[in-house]
Amino acid sequence: MATVDEVRAALRQVIDPEIGHNLVDLGLIYGIDVEEDRVGVTMTFSTPGCPMHDVLVTGVERVVRALPGVSKVDVKVVWDPPWHPGMMADSVRKALGR
Amino acid sequence: MIPGLATQLAPPFRLVVTHFIAGLLLLPVVWALLLVDPSPLSGGLFGNRLLAVVHVTALGFIAPIVIGALYQIVPVVLGVRLTSVKAGWTALALVLAGLAGMAAHFWMGRFSPGLAIASTLAAAGLFLAASNLIASLRFVKSWSFGGVLIAVSLVFLLAAAGLGLALALNLVFPYFSSDHVSWLKVHAHLALVGWLGSVVMGATHKLIPMFTLGPEPPSRASAGAAALVFGGLFLLFAAWRGIAPHESGSVGAVALIAGAGTYAALLVRSFAKRARKEIDTGLRHVLAAGAALLAACLIALAAVLPGFLGPLWVVRFSLAYGFLLFGTVVVLIIGMLYKILPFLVWYHRYADKVGLEPVPTTRDIFSEGTARLLFPGHITGGLVVLFGILAGEPILLRAGATILFIVNAGTARLLIGTISRRDDGDS
């Protein structure tokens, strides 16, 4: 069975190609839930209608499913609470000039 | 619509980028024409060679790129599929074929039946493109401010194309000669303010916050600003056509400028709250376009104030106003292409590989450094042409046209190079 930390580390491989930072540090991952071979990921996007939506959701499914002991991945996209820049890691905020 | 899944509804990559390539290749032609003969920008208004230059810009550069972008943006923003890809290709071919004939006839000052045929082809292409998009909009389930403005823009495009065709036919087979110039002003403003103003407001409302990670401008205030722009535009039309008193034209101009200013202020407020503080070259173009629009508004106000300018300066200010209005759109389009095109290329080449292997970012496939080098050339060339218009000086016009020819050719090379970039293992 994968751990939450292993899932989070895997999710760091998925990079938003336009911003150039991974989904975890961008604050887009709201929750990770591991139950035996099933992993649930709750995430959001910086804006509804983000054109990267489908690509990044598929990327999340792929990197998590590639972990040992994971056979099922459920990605849930939510818009509440809405994402805001304060959710980004300090390193990303600094890189983006905030 | 499921937010974001709309990218899967987008038309083939090839259709969209072919529109972009056509536009990018035709923009340097505008400056080549002005190098050959700068008189269209130093003579009177509405001369035949000015019509040639204006139509190469509008139908050669602006229309293909804006229509190509709408084919991509409408599915993304509104969650509907383009009705017919084949109609998209046909429309592009008709517009370009029509433009070639129109530009040649205008340049040579030959208002023969060939001009009527060419204009009919171009108008048919624009009708087909707009109808194709409008047919797609029938299936929209949830309308946003951006979506409504895109729909409005298509109505303006149909009106501008229809009136443009009527005017071209009038040159060949005169049937409303006394009113030709006032209708020409209506046609130009239907296209530049109605069609392109709506597209600009609709697209920037969504794209600027998306690229800068800022909040969207409030929809209700944005709608109010748009209403002022369109209300002002129709007052101007009424004054030009003698339906309303002459003074209402000034009121219309002020309302139009107030609407544009209000929308710009809303965008600036959103921009100030952005998470991405870095201003890249694409955004620098957007800011430069805002400055050009402001200058166009000030020049327009000076030109319409009764008795403020003598007849010679009214002509020069009017030419400068038109140049700045076109400059606003051209610079904005280039800035937006710097943002949109690398994303489209990335999506086409790498979207399937995310999560399976490391993929580049959009910055890795686009030379921001080259774009940064070209940017001062756009501004310098534009200013030299502007001063050339105001001074009525052909040497300045030729110098500016030379700079802009080189810079626009460089822009075309940079962006077409991004499209045609090949990687190891790329199929």
Describe the structure.
The complex is a heterodimer of chains A (98) and B (427). By secondary structure, chain A is of the alpha+beta class. In chain A, 28% of the residues lie in helices and 23% in strands. Chain A has a single domain, classed as GMP Synthetase, Chain A, domain 3 (2-Layer Sandwich). In chain A, a hairpin with a 4-residue loop joins β1 (15-16) and β2 (21-22). The longest helix of chain A is centred in the middle third of the chain and has 13 residues, at 53-65. With 427 residues, chain B is mainly alpha-helical. Chain B has helices at residues 13-36, 48-78, 85-108, 113-137, 145-172, 180-212, 219-240, 247-272, 281-304, 311-350, 368-391, 394-419. In chain B, α5 packs antiparallel against α6. Chain B is globular. The chains are: A alpha+beta (98), B mainly alpha (427). The A-B interface holds A 13-15, 17-20, 45-56, 58-63, 66, 77, 79, 85, 88, 93, 96-98 and B 2-8, 76-77, 206, 209-211, 213, 216, 275-278, 343, 346-347, 350-351, 354-356, 358-363.
Brief overview:
The complex is a heterodimer of chains A (98) and B (427). Helix content of chain A is 28%, strand content 23%.
Give short descriptive properties of this protein.
A: alpha+beta; GMP Synthetase, Chain A, domain 3; three-stranded mixed sheet; globular; B: 427 residues; mainly alpha; 77% helix; 0% strand; disordered N terminus
Q: What would the average pLDDT of chain A be, to the nearest integer?
A: 89
Give the amount of beta strand of chain A, in percent: 15-25%
Low-confidence stretches of chain B: 1-5
Tell me the span between the first and last alpha carbons of chain A.
Answer: 38 Å
SS field, number of helical segments of chain B: 12
Q: Say how many strands of chain A there are.
A: 5
How many domains of chain A? The number is 1
- Helix/strand/pairing class of chain A, anyone? alpha+beta
The backbone outline of chain B, from C-alpha atoms, is globular
CATH topology of chain A: the name is GMP Synthetase, Chain A, domain 3
Largest sheet of chain A: 3 strands, mixed
Mean pLDDT of chain B: 90
CATH architecture of chain A: 2-Layer Sandwich
